[in-house]
Amino acid sequence: MVKGIVRRVIPGRLLAEHEYLLRRVLAILYRGNRHRCNICGYGLRAFIEINDEDRLCPRCGSSSRARRLYMILENEVNSEERILHFSPSGAIRRAYELRSDIEYTTTDYAGEFTADKCIDITDIDESENVYDKIICYHVLEHIEEDKNAIMELFRILKPGGSCFVQTPFSEEMYEDQSITAPEDRLINFGQEDHVRVYSVEGLKSRLTEQGFRVEVLVMNGDIDEYYGLYPGEYVLKAHKPR
Fold first, then answer.
1. Domain limits of the chain?
2. pLDDT 10s digits, 56-108
3. Could you tell me if 126 and 156 are in contact, meaning their C-beta atoms sit under 8 angstroms apart?
């Protein structure tokens, strides 16, 4: 609702150019001590509720899944590591760009996110064994040749490195390459530009086939009201053996 009101008052181009500054102003209305965003550190009386499906930080715009990812990465990312982040969350991107102790590179192929590079995930123009960490969140469900993409992720990851992967998940994995119309993809895969629905085990199997050792991180605790996190979330940590 708040986002809709802002868009009606402020032209779209101006909103895009000054989103971060406008969010800082908006955040004043939500300031409090009941909640906290673990990415920007802002204290909140409430998150912005999105149809009971997500909770956004009014200051940095982080989603619940971005805050969960950031919490995981805080225990994983070490100094002097090279990190590649596909289709990055703006909140995480801004936080990691401030760190001088890591080499953090962002990429977005479709031009939907602010990023350093434009990389085709199925044909990555990088040498082997380059990155210590790769973040591939909500990307593979858009990629028709996902096995090629996973093979490329394995190739550019250093031995001993980890790739953090998440997609929307269902109980059963389903794909049909004959389904190409956006309206049919919406019906079958949940979004107009998705090409399949993964199950946790289905994605784990595809990662394993390319050589990864996969740990499934299961977030099944009670809802974390303080940080605005949801339970029942899965993250796959794909490790490249040394």
1. 1-62, 63-239
2. 999 999 999 999 999 999 999 999 999 999 999 999 999 999 999 999 999 98
3. yes
> Other C-beta atoms within 10 Å of 71: how many?
15
CATH topology for 63-239 is Rossmann fold (3.40.50)
Q: Tell me the pairing of strands 213-219 and 233-239.
A: antiparallel
Residue count of the chain: 242
Cβ-proximal residues to 95 (8 Å cutoff; 6+ apart), any chain: 39, 40, 70
- pTM equals 0.87
Query: What angle in degrees, to the nearest 10, is found between the helix axes of 64-73 and 90-97?
Result: 30
What one-character-per-residue DSSP string does 31-44 give? EEEEEE-TTT--EE
| Torsion sign over Cα 15, 19, 24, 28 | positive
